[in-house]
């Protein structure tokens, strides 16, 4: 059953990606697209790649404060696990890279994998609320050309949906944390129709996950979570801006904020590994809203995606090779 659902999700993602690619390339002049790609300035792209890795660095810094209640993890292990996880997100479907990232750190630091994964749930919640802040900046700071009002309405709707999802997630986590015993008893009742061996495996994992939902009580650590979130997403905004400048496109920084928010919404949609299609559609249509011609907008989308796709794959594979972790082991643990 689990494999069937995973397969269905995989094929749905491929179908969504294929459909969006058809829409994007259907009315594009190939010669104009190639001409736009040839205009790219490698200097800005180099800076964009550097900024991308700087963002991963600060993600690892933030993760250190989230893992601290479990163990004082070595920063090198946190950074390499972050790179491996984002590499896996680009290569595996359904964001399985989050499990790979948790497993990689758990193996190196000898921590319960479910507890480490719980820190990544908190990590994503911090991302969500930082993105909501960026959304507010985009709503009040972006000035769309006449005729692009639909883009702003879509942004507002996406913001409300995102806020609702994250509030529900926080409510569920609080309920799990405050009534852990009751939650595990309820789960045990739900699993009675299944084989006992399955329940004996799942319940300890859920218990470890709930135990991993911790935040440091030190104000300094809580402040560090805030500023690292702001720095991480500020760098992500600059990375998009550098991608635009590589093509000679000069737009206000708030436009890059708007495009970044669209990209965040896009990667939530089922798609093929690497978010192919959804990522390109979000970037392209975001630029079209500012009057950028279609071929140029699609060229930017292709290059910005490549900046976020290929370098981290190379870095992640290097970390796996250096850490002597078999790829098959990572894949099997991400599937369990």
Automatic annotation (TrEMBL):
It comes from the Bacteria. It is a multi-pass membrane protein. The chain crosses the membrane at residues 42-61, 73-92, 125-142, 154-176, 222-240, 298-321. It is found in: Cell membrane. Keywords: Cell membrane, Membrane, Transmembrane, Transmembrane helix. InterPro entries: L-PG_synthase/AglD (IPR022791). It holds the Pfam family LPG_synthase_TM. GO terms for cellular component: plasma membrane. NCBIfam families: flippase-like domain. This is Membrane protein. It comes from Geobacter pickeringii. The lineage of its organism: Bacteria, Pseudomonadati, Thermodesulfobacteriota, Desulfuromonadia, Geobacterales.
């Amino acid at each position: 059953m689990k494999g069937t659902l995973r397969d269905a999700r995989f094929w749905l993602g491929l179908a969504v990606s294929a459909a969006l690619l058809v829409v994007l390339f259907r009315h594009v002049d190939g010669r104009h697209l190639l001409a736009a790609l040839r205009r790219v300035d490698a200097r800005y792209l180099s800076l964009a790649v550097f900024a991308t890795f700087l963002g991963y660095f600060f993600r690892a810094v933030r993760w250190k404060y989230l893992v601290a209640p479990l163990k004082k993890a070595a920063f090198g292990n946190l950074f390499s696990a972050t790179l491996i996880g984002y590499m896996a997100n680009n290569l595996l479907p359904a964001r399985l890279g989050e499990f790979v990232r948790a497993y990689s750190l758990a193996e190196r630091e000898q921590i319960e994998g479910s507890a480490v994964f719980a820190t990544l749930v908190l990590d994503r919640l911090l991302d969500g609320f930082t993105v909501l802040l960026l959304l507010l900046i985009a709503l009040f700071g972006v000035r769309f050309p006449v005729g692009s009002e639909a883009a702003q309405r879509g942004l507002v709707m996406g913001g409300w949906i995102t806020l609702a999802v994250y509030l529900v997630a926080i409510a569920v986590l609080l309920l799990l944390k405050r009534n852990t015993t009751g939650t595990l008893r309820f789960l045990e009742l739900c699993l009675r129709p299944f084989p006992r061996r399955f329940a004996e495996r799942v319940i300890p994992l859920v218990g470890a996950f709930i135990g991993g939902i911790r935040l440091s009580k030190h104000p300094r650590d809580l402040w560090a979570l805030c500023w690292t979130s702001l720095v991480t997403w500020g760098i992500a905004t600059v990375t998009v801006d550098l991608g635009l400048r590589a093509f000679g496109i000069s737009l206000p920084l708030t436009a890059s904020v708007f495009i970044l928010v669209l990209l965040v919404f896009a990667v939530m949609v089922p798609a093929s590994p690497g978010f192919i299609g959804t990522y390109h559609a979000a970037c392209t249509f975001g630029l079209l809203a500012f009057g950028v011609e279609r071929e140029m907008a699609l060229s930017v989308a292709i290059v910005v995606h490549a900046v976020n796709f290929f370098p981290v794959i190379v870095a992640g594979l290097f970390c796996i090779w250096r850490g002597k972790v078999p790829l098959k082991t990572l894949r099997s643990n991400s599937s369990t």
